[in-house]
Design a protein that fits this description.
The model is unreliable at 8-13 (pLDDT under 50). By secondary structure, the protein is mainly β. Helices cover 9% and strands 59% of the residues. It has one domain (34-44, 96-337): Porin, CATH 2.40.160. The chain has a 16-stranded antiparallel β-barrel with strand order 1-2-3-4-5-6-7-8-9-10-11-13-14-15-16-17. The longest helix is centred in the N-terminal third of the chain and has 19 residues, at 2-20.
């Protein structure tokens, strides 16, 4: 009788757990086209990037704050001979309340680092490396928050160097006024076992600004800010290869009924001083920062901006080395399922 009672209790408890869980799914489609016309630049070459991502994902949620997500990201590059050119796995745990967000695993970068601009992550990173593999923690709300995160981008092997990001960002706003910052440290280490001719390098960046903002979603919005962009670039393997660039940064954004512009201006010390040695292995931001001044002016139209469908066309202007360069971008995303935010 005791065993029967215990079995019945376990069965009821299992049924309770099953009923307490919530199963959801989503299938995401993303298409990007990015054509850069940078002929004549000393810092970056012209190229055309395009691709199609298919991202099916399922989730199990319980107690209203816990969730496990699992899915696959399939990339098809038009013109390539393979049916699928890249496969990534999305797999993470999430804890979320109105004031706290915690993720651990492999999860979309755009969900958590949308406040970082191309000075930190250039467009190709967002196109082809869409996942963070690590942890992310946020406390606060949309306009008043603090973030801490880690992204493990390279595991040490006999042929692969260990590398990872550690980052912090935050924002404080009151009515029209705000102050914000974004930062990261990228650690680029050695192989395992160590390769004698290689050492350890770091690339650190901190952008801090104050400004004014106004946002009425779907109608009119704008922002103006000014601040500082500081860096720390070091190659420990060679004595004296240490640089600490500092410069002024200004931003001006405006949008009216889906038509808008985002402008960023930098003037100061040349950055990415170790680019000739490490290139994009150490630096993940736009190479235009290698000059003493740089301005990026994005002009866009949101043809669609709904809960499930987004279509955006960009014409971007880049001012560098006394020259003007052009970039055209088209991004289309569609989400279906019962787990669309």
């Amino acid at each position: 009788m005791q065993r029967l009672f215990l079995s019945a209790a376990l069965m009821l408890f299992s049924l309770f757990l099953v009923n307490a869980q919530e199963y959801r799914w989503k299938a995401g489609f993303e298409y990007f086209f990015d054509n850069t016309e940078y002929s004549g630049s000393s810092f970056v070459g012209s190229q055309t990037m395009n691709g199609i991502w298919l991202n099916p994902i399922g989730s199990v949620k319980w107690d209203s704050v816990h969730a496990l997500y699992g899915g696959v990201n399939l990339l098809k590059i038009p013109g390539m001979k393979k049916a699928i050119d890249k496969v990534d796995v999305t797999l993470y745990y999430q804890y979320q309340t109105p004031k706290i967000l915690f993720r651990a695993g492999a999860f979309p970068r755009k969900d958590v680092l949308s406040n970082y601009n191309t000075f930190f992550f250039n467009d190709s990173v967002n196109h082809f490396l869409p996942l963070i593999q690590g942890v992310f923690f946020r406390i606060g709300s949309r306009d008043n928050f603090f973030d801490a995160w880690m992204d493990w981008t390279g595991y040490a092997t006999p042929t692969t160097r260990e590398n990872f990001f550690i980052g912090f960002s935050g924002k404080a706003a009151h009515e029209l006024f705000f102050a914000d910052f974004q930062s990261y440290m990228f650690h680029y280490a050695n192989t395992r076992p160590s390769t004698p001719d290689w050492g350890v390098s770091e690339n650190m960046q901190l952008q801090a600004s104050v400004g004014l903002q106004y946002d009425n979603p779907g109608t009119v919005g704008g922002m103006v800010s000014a601040g500082i962009l500081m860096g720390y670039e070091r190659d420990r393997h060679i004595e004296g290869r240490l640089f600490k660039p500092v410069g002024f940064i200004a931003r001006l954004n405006a949008e009216y009924h889906g038509i808008g512009t985002q402008n960023t201006f930098y003037v100061g010390d040349p950055r990415m001083r170790l680019f000739e040695t490490f290139g994009g292995d150490l630096y993940w931001g736009t190479p235009f920062l290698r000059g003493k001044s740089y301005a990026e002016s994005e002009w866009y139209i949101r043809f669609a901006e709904t809960r499930r469908t987004k279509v955006r066309l960009n014409i971007n202007l880049h001012f560098s080395e006394g020259k003007l360069f052009f970039q055209q971008m088209l991004n289309v995303s569609v989400d279906i399922g019962n787990d669309v935010p």
